Amino acid sequence: MSDIKERKPENFIHNIIEKDLESQKYGDRVHTRFPPEPNGYLHIGHAKSICLNFTTAEKYHGKCNLRYDDTNPVKEDTEYVDSIEEDVKWLGFQWDERLWASDYFDEMYDCALELIKKGKAYVCDLSADQIREYRGTLKEPGKESPYRERPAEENLRIFEEMRQGKYRDGEKVLRAKIDMASPNMNMRDPVIYRIAHTEHHNTGDKWCIYPMYDFAHPIEDAIEGITHSICTLEFEDHRPLYDWVLREVGRWPQPPQQIEFARLNLTNTVMSKRYLKAMVDQGTVEGWDDPRMPTIAGIRRRGYTPEAVRDFCERIGVSKANSTVDSGLLEHCVREDLKTKVESRNVVENPIKVIITNYPEGKTELLSLENNREAPELGERTVPFSRELYVDGDDFMEVPVKKYFRLFPGNEVRFKGAYFIRCDRAVKNPDGSIKELLCSYDPQTRSGSGFEGRKVKGTIHWVDAASAVKIKIRNYDCLMKDDEEGGQSLNPDSLIETEGYAEPLLGEAKPGERFQFFRKGYYIADEKLTTEDEKVFNKIVGLKSSWKK
């Protein structure tokens, strides 16, 4: 206990936990859980909850369960279960137990019987629309159901008949008997069981009645011995019902407590699983793991690292107030994580051929380039240099704008790791486009030669034309754009595919391997599309540019 007392709380949730440890509310136990519903792929918002629940358990030497809230058989699929487990492991966590809410269906049914016997629950024949109408408004109390005072014996009989499959979907429900005049709408006799003649992935056709989430959730927590049930802020108004269920069932002397925190909202990012599923179903994106998607599968394929995501979740912290985080912070965390980990490579897009007219024909020399200026331990590599090269299309302007220090007729630049090159003339195609640049070099200016003469303002990269490898490049931007009215719309430029030339070493890239494309950004060889014969690279995150068109 002493080491816990000495630690300074990192957030208000940890503050609550440390007070509970001090008072021995749950003894020395801290037990959390991550309870996803397997009805879709997890997104970056879920990553915050995963990190919070698992790191909290780690900090206090406790346990964290992975529990599937599979109480709605209509929407659930084993594909989602597999993806959830992959996501949790990718983030670097391992659950203590993997559990299913459906494993507790028998005990939940017994709890419902207990409430009926106590006069705290009743079978209602009103339709869903009628229940909604009877519920009232925020300003007006609701009306009591005409079935509210059914005798307990009759409720028990009908509820058992519901279980046996005697009634159709929606024909009857079981409701908690609380207070139809409560200012909290969730306490106005909420439905706790509904009929659904649907086979369940775990229990098969054993059940045709299923508990509602607000009834199942507190019981699941209590059965598992959860101490602190951490969930997002939209469940704050449901907490009185959470406590009511545990109190009225009365089986747990020290029931768990629910604590709410603000969910993650990111600029230019959709956080609705329903909306994301619609985009997948409609073919707006390539799938749940489309690198533009905010799903954990998507950002993993995009090239984000688990270390960066965990760093991001730690930086944004935990609060009670809803706010929107700039997605640039997540990109910053990715950039910070990669900057000393990956090697640099030269890649040019929209290539323009450069012919160095005074360079010896047939000669090729190998030049040494550093792999990562910020990580000297990553060493150097050699790249070929010859008379014919390619430069990036953005590195030439026939009529330069102000403060443009790259190639233009009469200007001299340094080719990274090579020589000073002067652009003498641009040769054009019949349509007016640039065919090639005729340039000259100063052999006395080879990098590393100690030349201390004239200086140039621009340094650009290049690839050797004879040995260049052709690659496909997928430049990604955010999938959605925030508008001034607070809404969002699809970004038509979220994916721009181009082809480019790369230095020879990129021809050996393996799927999932990351690189910095010099002066462009960080890229990853796409895990699905990259083969021995074709190299496809996804843009992970860009670099800060000194100049933009």
TrEMBL record:
Question: Which positions does the motif 'HIGH' region occupy?
Answer: 36-46
GO annotations of cellular component type: cytosol
UniProt: L-glutamine binding residues = 69, 213
Start and end of every Glutamyl/glutaminyl-tRNA synthetase class Ib catalytic domain?
Answer: 30-339
Motif 'KMSKS' region: which residue numbers? 270-274
The superkingdom of the source organism is Bacteria
Q: Which residues form the tRNA synthetases class I (E and Q) anti-codon binding domain?
A: 459-526
Q: Which residues cross the membrane?
A: none
Q: Where in the cell is it found?
A: Cytoplasm
Q: Which reaction does it catalyse?
A: tRNA(Gln) + L-glutamine + ATP = L-glutaminyl-tRNA(Gln) + AMP + diphosphate
Q: Which residues form the Glutamyl/glutaminyl-tRNA synthetase class Ib anti-codon binding domain?
A: 347-442
SUPFAM superfamilies referenced in this protein's UniProt entry, alphabetically: Nucleotidylyl transferase, Ribosomal protein L25-like
**What GO molecular function annotations does the UniProt record carry, in alphabetical order?**
ATP binding; glutamine-tRNA ligase activity
EC main group: ligase
Residues the entry annotates as binding ATP: 37-39, 43-49, 232, 263-264, 271-273
Q: Which UniProt keywords apply?
A: Aminoacyl-tRNA synthetase, ATP-binding, Cytoplasm, Ligase, Nucleotide-binding, Protein biosynthesis
Q: Which GO terms describe its biological process?
A: glutaminyl-tRNA aminoacylation; glutamyl-tRNA aminoacylation
Q: Which family does it belong to?
A: Belongs to the class-I aminoacyl-tRNA synthetase family.
Subunit text: Monomer.
State what protein this is by name: Glutamine--tRNA ligase
